[in-house]
Structures are given as C-alpha cells and as structure tokens.
Amino acid sequence: MENQDKLLNDITTKEYEYGFVTDIDTDVIPKGLSEDVVRLISAKKKEPEFMLEFRLKAYKAWLKMKAPEWAHLKIPPIDFQETIYYAAPRTSPKYESLDEVDPELLETFKKLGIPIEEQKHLAGVAVDVVMDSVSVTTTFKKVLAEKGIIFCSFSEALIEHPDLIKKYLGMSVPITDNFFAALNSAVFSDGSFCYIPKGVRCPMELSTYFRINTAGTGQFERTLIIAEDDSYVSYLEGCTAPMRDENQLHAAVVEIIAMDRAEVKYSTVQNWYPGDKNGVGGIYNFVTKRGICRGESSKISWTQVETGSAITWKYPSCVLIGDNSVGEFNSVALTNHHQQADTGTKMIHIGKNTKSTIVSKGISAGQSDNSYRGLVKVMPGAINARNYSQCDSLLLGSTCGAHTFPYIEVGNKSSIVEHEATTSKIGEDQIFYCNQRGISTEDAIGMIVNGYAREVLNKLPMEFAVEAQKLLAISLEGSVG
Amino acid sequence: MLSIKNLRASVEGKEILKGINLEIKAGEVHAIMGPNGSGKSTLANILAGKSDYEVLEGEVTFLGQNLLELSPEIRSRSGLFLSFQYPVEIPGVPMVNFLKASVNEHRKFKGLDPLTAGEFLKLMRAKKDMLHLDTELTNRSVNEGFSGGEKKKNEIFQMAMLEPKLAILDETDSGLDIDALRVVAEGVNALKTTENATIVVTHYQRLLDYIVPDFVHVLYKGRIVKSGGKELAFELEEKGYDWIKNGEN
Question: What is the pTM of this model?
C-alpha cells in the first residue's frame, strides 16, 4: 500500500503535448465587456439586425445575473473586464485550396494530428475547423450539399440561412438560462451550424475541432444542430488548447433540436490545457449543452470524454418532449493534479413513455476533485417514463475526491427511476497481477482505467475511441512513478 | 536456476518465513506442501515480488541475478511466472488485449519485435489447442465472471503463452473439480521441458497424482521441516500434517 501511494505521489507531469502557440496575425478588439463591445462584435461579423438584438438582450440580462455558486468547485473570482471577447485571424477571406492557408496554421493542425489533406481523403469525416472563433476552412461541403445538409460556420449560416437561425436559436438554451449561457449569447464569436433535412441520414461523421489560441482570449462558441423528421446525424467535437499561464475562460453553448423520429449523436473529447501539476493555469470550462427531443420517438445522445480543463462545469441535458423520445448521457470524466470537475446531466421527461439512460464514469487522481451532478425530473404528464442511472467513481490514490449528487423528482406513479452508484479504488491486486505478467505499473493503470471506462468509450465513433483511449492513458502519465 | 538461502520475511511486522533454504535446477518439479498458515503462499508471493512483504534476511538468486532487487515486471520478463491462487478480475479489459500486451513486453525484453495481431492470434490458437481450452475465454474481460475452474485454466493458458523458465503454481488445485484438475495438470505437464522448472504449492496430495514431483518439501511454521522424493507426499496424505506437527514436538 505504502509503495502504491508513493508511486501515486511521485507525480511528474508529462508536458502537455499541445502546449504551443501559433504566431498568426490576429485581429483583436480591446479587452473588457460593454454594450459597445457587443455592438462591435456584431458589426465586425456583419450580422443581421435580429442577431444584434439577440446579443443586446442577452447582455442586458447577463448584467443582472450572478455566476452560479452551487457547484462543488472552488472557482477563483473571474474579472470579466480582463477578458478579450473577440479575436479572429486577420486573413479573413475563405480559401479556395489549402495552399492559400497560412502555413503556420497548417503546422498547428499537424501538431494536433489532424492533417486536413488526409482528413479530406479519409473515410467520411468532414472537418469544420474553428480556430480562435472564425471558421477557417470547411471541407466536404459539396458532398453534404447534395443531400441538402448544411454544415458550416455559424457566421456563414447567419448570412446564408438567417431564417433557420432566427427560428431555432435560443430554443434549447434560452438567453436567460444561466449566467454563462447569457454571456455566450451576448458575445459568442463563431461556432458551427448543422441542419439535416427530412428523411436524410448524414453519410459521414461531422467533425469540428475547436482550438483556443490568442493569449487571454475567452472562447465563446455557439453550436446549433437541427435534425428534421426521420433524419440522423453523428457529430464529433474535439478540443485542444495551447499552454498558458493565465486562466482562460471558455463558455460555449450547444443547442440540439430533434424532430419526429430524428436521431442526433453528439460526441465530445475534451483535453484542453488542465493547468500544470501545481494547479497553475488551465482552462475554465463553463459549458451549456442541451438537446430537445421535440418530435415523437426522437433520440438525442451525449457522449463525452473529459480529461482537460482546470475547471469543468458542464451538464449536457435532454428535454424529452415528444412521446417515446429517448435521451442518453454517457460520460467519462478524468481529473488529475489540481483539476476540478462538476459534471453530469439533466433528463427532463415531459412526453409519455420517454426513456433516459445515464452512465457516468468518474476517475480521480492526484489532488483533484471530481463530482457527478445529475437531475432526473419526471413531469406529471410523462406517464410510463423510465430512467436508469449508473454513476461510478474510481479513485487513484488517497488525496483525490469523488462525489455524487443525484437529484430525482418523479411527478407520477407509473414511472420508474433507477439509480446505481459505486465508488472503488484502483486495486493494488490488479496492478500486481499485471506486473506479474510483465506489464509496468503505469501501463497497468492505463489499461485498468480504459477497461473501467470501456462501456462509454464503446459509444464513441471508432477513430474517436482510439484517440480517447490514448488520451486517458496520457492524462494519467505521471500520476504514477 | 533458483537458489534461496536463509530467507526470512514478515508481513505487517509478523514473521512468516523463518529461514527458507531451497535449490531448484532446470528440469525439476518441486512440490511445497504444508498445513494452512505455514507460509506457502507467502513464499510464492515474495518470489513474484508482491510489495506487502518485508524481507528481513537472506538471498534469492534467479538465473544468476539477485531476484529481490528486481521489480515484479522484470521478474516476469526474466521468466518467472506465478499462477495465482485467486486470479483477480479486471473488468472491461479483454483477455486478448491483456495477453498481447504481456507477450509483447516479454518479447521487447528479449530484444524481439512485437507480434502482429495475426501472429499473436495464431500463437494463441496453437496454445489453446495444446491445452484443449475453451476458445471463448479470451474474448471476455480478464477473469471477469470466470468460474473457479476457468480462472485456473486461464492461468495455465497464460503460462503457455509466456513459456516461463520457472513457474510457481500457488494452490492451483483449490476449488477445482476432478475434470478441471486433469486439464490443468495435463497443461502443466505438456509445458514441462528439461529447460524449465516448476514449483507446485499445494495443501493436498491430490494434484501430485497428476503432476509428479521430483522433490517434496514440507513447510511448517515458516521453515522447511522435511524434504524427500514423491513418496513423502503419499506418506503425508496417509498420516496427515499432525505427523509433522507431532514430530516437531
């Protein structure tokens, strides 16, 4: 035991692999937030009038709101006037080919392991790369366009499909939903827009890589996904950020709307800079993600693998309005060193025979703190609703924390809600067994943790699952000697 | 191959091994018998490098190296294999992945290239045939939901894959019905060569009907109190451990 603790304490961080800064000419507006800044962002993006109104309404609401304090997190005070709210690569025109793209930018992509050239040819992944808020290049658009699928940057959608945005923006996450959603609504810079028409199955995984680049820049992404009747789409979001000493604020909003019998799978692998081993630096990640199953028999599933950020505050949720609709949440959240995560989901059952499943796997190492927070709410009209929740926590060492905060509200008698929770420590016997077969302790822990998370990893698309497995092992490197 | 000199060891401050001496040569099968609590499993675990024990005194040499200075994984890669009394479950880790990692670590240690997926599967099939093993076990998670017999068969299967120089079978017969016992014993016998050696740790004589030892040692209260040929096992079976206990008094 002593030996094991020593191993776990001998923490020497592997340097964060994506900690590099790209030297690209950026267009930055002065830091701080005011009505003028909101107007400036909107003007810079040449937005339609309704968008400016939306932003101003959100800004005014935000001024009256307070940052939430209920999470099991120690959040240092954030000075919102010290943040830069807009930065875009100065080379704003769209490129016809990759040759025209800033070579430094391409170099960055290479370091991230997403060579666009290859991605173009690779089996069915279209990448809409968002770098410091403005979409730089979009691939595969033609293939998608033939099916009537729209997949583009949010700014582009505002110009080309303003009616769709006007109709659906704020439907899942209203302006006043919470402090961070209001902030995002006021200042969001760009993001992705995705529209799947009636009866269309999207033939490829839609993938977006987000990346925070400019020092001190808050990143406010906005994603809107609309799936019409009988459509299907699988959407992947991956994130990395370069190393910074200052804490960087990130407050994204993702909205999904699924109509009759539509299915949306949303997968995230998040490995933003978690801060160093002493807890200095790292991203503050306050995200609002919500999907509405508006149509009958529609389905929305969230799958997330969270290994990054200094602070994670995130509850991808489903509002099950349509009868027989289904919501799923599958999560692996790993915290190491001084990371803090308070994450989980909300499943709101409104329609009849609605079903939801929650599988949450928390992994804590170092001095980190990892909480699951979940709400299952069954409204009186949601007769025969079903929920199954399973929340497991795995502890590595004795200096980390794991907490589970389930909230269950059932408004009728025909519904069944089940909740199971376990907490376990990684077994010394398991590690010794691996050692006895020639496997080092570090590899053994990577293997055991991946085994523990497998149920969730299996829900990820193939190439993402491989990446996620490596990420789990890398994130724990140095958590044992 | 293995030389143990005056090995004394304790767990949680209590002395369990009180001076063990043992010499094992290639090609030999040694049985270590003794009543419960005599220190048999402690000896097996110390040889494999489990960290809960404290070695107080003594020397252990394995293939010319000071065994006690090697980490458990290096001991394994050097050719020491422990068949666990209670193989632990590792949920979610497929047996195939586990074994492949294990086999390739052993190969890397020997300066060999890792096996490709195809080569590995071929090797696995060959070993399964050799042991008449249920093919389904390797598709499941490591030991998860295995019956007692399946777990022990799985240990012997891993042994076949790794081809150790020295195999230590810790109470491999416990919890086995007669059919499983036969499969396990036949496997061990099939793997025996003049190059490797086996230590069979057991409470009962039963297993020794199938795996015939060259030497039998009786461990009692942390010491080897009697050594002899295979006939010693029969004598023990007949007279019981009281014979040894009384003999000491």
Answer: 0.80
